[in-house]
Amino acid sequence: MKRNEMIELTRVIGCIMVILLHIRLGYIKGNSFIASNLWIYCFVRDGVTLFWIIQGFFMIGGKSYKSIINRTVSKVLCPAITFMLFSAIYSKASYGGAEQNSLFNVILNGAVDVATALINWDATLIPNCSHLWYIFSYIMVILWYPLLSVFGKNKFARRWAMGLFLVSVIINDIQQLYVPPIGMVITYSIINESIFFVLLGYEIHQYFKSDRRDVKKIRLLGITGYIGGNILRYILQIALFAKLGEYTSEYYLNTLTLPGIISATGMFLFINSFTVKERIVNEIFLFLGSHTYYIYILHWMIKDKLIAIGFDTWLYNKSVDLFMGNVIYVLGYTSVIFCICLILSIMIKKISVLVLRRG
User: Fold this and answer.
1) Backbone angles phi, psi at 28, to 5 degrees
2) Gap between the Cα atoms of 326 and 316, Å rounded
3) Which of 63, 232, 304, 336 is the most exposed place for a label (fewest CB within 10 A)?
């Protein structure tokens, strides 16, 4: 299947948003919150959601299940397990006790930790791998693909499930601020968060294929949804803080809220309402998009290494404690992490090609 340049750009933006989220400045200071940092948090929250939408945009229909499984194992699972093993071994070699001083013990214990993480379906058990929860989510969607494909292609069943899920989200959103006299309403849904966004991606794909597509309306709806969704997210989160009298709940900052759904959908629609005719620009999008997976895998470890050498503190001290200063900080920090990971990704891919050729 020919790669779509704007989808690849969406991957890049999603990847950047994930990094931005992980290096964001805290928005709580003493007994108050920092509005500028909370705004930044709101607008960078939807990176993983974009990945789920992209997954649904391409996955349902077209390819055989066997080819999907083969690609998932070779392109997604194997690199993730390799990184988890490297991270586990590196951590034990760097911080392990005297009982782990032999290379064999370090490798063996690292492999045991990775096996434990896989059995428990929990990437947080491995240092620098907590962000890989998304990979487990991705694989679960793949495992459900035979049923999801049949279910997703049935328009009535798909929209009924998505509608039921959306109603439960709205009820939960309301109940964070207002509990009805009858008490909390318990909601149920036959799909979860990742499945909802995958189905949403397929729904968008079907609309993009139809004759009803209106690029200008999509673009306007997209930018309105992204900005409006995040303004709503910010307002509701402030209201939640005011109700609780503390800053412990981040409910409305999560992706599984109505503002989160509106924001992520708007971002996807806005980006993909454009077409770029310049060949060199499209090639850049395709090139960067091809490296987003390794950038995603590596960024947490690189972030921690930059923190260890004090780069984040140095950069923050160069910025003023104002909104634009914070924006400059997160964009500068993200750019450095992205570029380092991009270089490493290029190197890893070139080494992999050389190894496969010799093998």
Assistant:
1) -105, 130
2) 8
3) 304
φ, ψ dihedrals at 250, nearest 5°:
-115, 30
Q: Is 346 exposed, middle or buried (0-12, 13-18, 19+ CB in 10 A)?
A: middle
Query: How many residues in the chain?
Result: 359
Nearest to 5 by CA among 338, 287, 293: 287
Residue 49's nearest CA partner among 166, 252, 195, 209 is 195
Top-confidence residue, 113 or 322? 113
Residue 53 is inside which H or E element, if any? helix 47-59
Looking at residue 319, its pLDDT comes to: 64
Vertex 140, ends 135 and 146: CA angle to 5°? 135
288: tokens are 């960067």
Q: Residue 60: CA atoms inside 13 Å, Cβ hemisphere, count?
A: 29
- Predicted confidence (pLDDT) per residue in 13-55, tens digit: 999 999 999 988 778 777 778 888 899 899 999 999 999 999 9
Strands 32-33 and 28-29: antiparallel
Please check whether residue 76 is in contact with residue 293, taking contact to mean a CB–CB distance below 8 angstroms.
Answer: yes
**pLDDT score for 91:** 85
Which tens digit of pLDDT belongs to each residue from 299-357?
999 999 999 999 888 887 776 556 677 778 888 899 999 999 999 999 999 998 888 77
* Buried-exposed string 304-336: b where 16+ CB fall within 10 A, e elsewhere: eebeeeebbeebbeebeeeeeebbbbbebbbeb
DSSP string, 258-277: HHHHHHHHHHHHHHTT----
pLDDT of res. 98: 43
In what helix (H) or strand (E) does residue 201 lie, and over which residues does it extend?
helix 193-209
Q: What is the pTM of this model?
A: 0.91
What residues contact 329, with CB distance under 8 A and at least 6 apart?
Answer: 25, 315, 316, 319
